[in-house]
Write a structure and sequence with these properties.
This protein has a single domain, classed as Beta Barrel (Ribosomal Protein L25, Chain P). It is 21% helix and 47% strand. The chain has 3 helices and 8 strands. The longest helix has 9 residues.
């Protein structure tokens, strides 16, 4: 999506109905990456996105420089990536922390 010369990355994400260790393990087994969305006066929200889509988006410079548009159940939310956790030797993204803007 382009807006006034700013390229925004758009990711379709899902909100799992449950959270916790078992849910995270199932998401990782399904090749999904876990995101946590903070800020905006709302409680933290756990989200899941396809790992391949996230890694393709993360490979671009815009991922770190521009807002990311997250589509959660049809509602668009803009956020910025704050912290990325990677697997120690596979170099795969395990978890991303995002801040609402």
């Amino acid at each position: 999506m382009e807006q006034e010369g700013v390229v925004t990355i758009r990711l379709e994400v899902e909100a799992p109905h449950k959270t916790g260790r078992k849910t995270r393990r199932k998401l990782h087994a399904a090749d999904k990456c876990v995101l946590t969305l903070y800020g905006g006066g709302k409680p933290p929200q756990t989200l899941a996105v396809d790992r391949a889509l996230l890694e393709r988006a993360e490979a671009t410079a815009e991922f770190y420089a521009e807002p990311i548009e997250l589509v959660i159940e049809g509602v668009a939310t803009r956020a910025e990536a704050r912290a990325i956790q990677r697997h120690p030797y596979r170099a795969r993204i395990v978890h991303v922390d995002l801040i609402r803007i």
